[in-house]
Amino acid sequence: MTRRFGSTELPAEQEQALRRAVRLAWLTIGFLVTAIVLMYLVMGSSQAMRTAWAEDLLSLIPPTAFLVATHVTRRRPSPRHPYGYHRSVGVGHLVAGTALLTMGALLVWESASSLLAQEHPPVGVLVVLDQPVWSGWLMIAVLAYTAVPPVLLGRAKLPLARTLHDRVLYADADMNRADWLTAVAGIVGVLGIGVGLWWADATAALVISFSILKDGVSNVRTATVALMDARATTVDGDEVHPLVAQVDAHLAGVPWVADGRVRLRDEGHVFHAECFVVPRAGHAPTLEDLTALVRDVSDLDWKLQDVVVAPVPVLPEELESRTATGGDDRSTRHDAA
Fold first, then answer.
1. pTM of the model
2. Which helix (H) or strand (E) segment is 274 a member of?
3. pLDDT reported for residue 163
4. Hey, how many other C-beta atoms are within 10 angstroms of the C-beta on 16?
5. Which of 72, 219, 298, 332 gets the most CB atoms within 10 Å of its CB?
6. Torsion-angle region of residue 87: left (phi > 0), alpha (psi -120 to 50) or beta?
7. 201: CB partners within 8 A, 6+ apart
8. Residue-wise pLDDT tens digits, 237-262
9. Helices in the chain by DSSP H: which ranges?
């Protein structure tokens, strides 16, 4: 069965990317469950281990939010939700970011408190196969186990997030790619305890906590901006999405249009497009003209959905200001006759 986002059937490339992304999300959850269990069994009194364990718990949120949002966005628009359910991606992104931000702040406070209190975490000895083993070696082994797979998963998810324009998947991939830092910081902290540096454990926990806090701030900011109907951007939120210039250029090439600009609303995976066009003097666009323009704009990219063309005497001020400031505007105007 062809997969879809709302009423949009996915092209073959996006459908394949979605299937792969779902498999990777389940694989991530499976790996994290094993890491969480192993880390819980060996973490002892180490602050760095407890913080790394908390981060792994939080890392369950993005892939879970991605799977839930992907399921919800398949629903078709309804009278109650005439725009569809695409914003579930943004809601999932905001929930994941808020959880990271809150937990990151709490862990920073706890780690800093331990450091200021000069706590000396004990690391004991366990008996494994009748042999005494320093618990620190088990901690290091588990941390090493959690270092590599997330990096590989993150690298695999990143191009899929761009193909699907999915910010939850992008945030998940970005966090996965940085997870090796958590493992390395944890290992340094445990080794520090082993050589008598009591402060190494709390310092490592503080580094990990700031990493979680940074992820939370970044994700909350990007998710909030997108939900506030900011101009459509690329999936990382760093640049104006190239479709803005592409649609503007197409409008500029329509013979009966003297001037035209698009207002794109990022709904999650798809964009809703409002095309404002100023007809040439003496030309009243017919229903056929408008219908053809809607069809041509919709055909530019699968993400363009609910395209509306509005003939206007002058462009809205906010679109004119985009022209005045240059930046992303690369279209060419026709001179009004």
1. 0.80
2. strand 271-279
3. 93
4. 14
5. 219
6. alpha
7. 46, 47, 48, 114, 121, 189, 190, 192, 193
8. 778 899 999 999 999 999 999 999 99
9. 12-42, 47-58, 61-73, 88-116, 135-145, 148-164, 167-194, 198-227, 242-252, 287-298, 317-324
